[in-house]
From TrEMBL:
This is CST complex subunit STN1. Coiled coil: none annotated. GO terms for molecular function: DNA binding. It comes from Calcidiscus leptoporus. The lineage of its organism: Eukaryota, Haptista, Haptophyta, Prymnesiophyceae, Coccolithales. PANTHER family: CST COMPLEX SUBUNIT STN1, REPLICATION PROTEIN A-RELATED.
Amino acid sequence: KACWLESHPLRFVELLGIVVSVDPRTPRKGDRVCFTLDDSTAFVECVLWSDSEVSDVHSTHSRPLGSLRLGVMVHVQGSVSRFRERRQLTVERFWPDHDCMAEC
């Protein structure tokens, strides 16, 4: 299922942005982490399922969710969908970006 941007179907996207909010609840197995990303064009609601195979691809840390902190710039890849009439990004991969000029 695709979301539409004007007349273009979107199935898989990659974004770079700053984490501006993170749901404070600690995820349990099968639960989700919700966070908001600001990519300088809009705020994007993101959902990361805690039992998915998502990993921080550029780190050896065993807890990749620890890199989802306020103010951190991250790359996210995933699929766009609608939930309760709002667009959201279901994250399949993410990793922090340490280059402060990456968003320029």
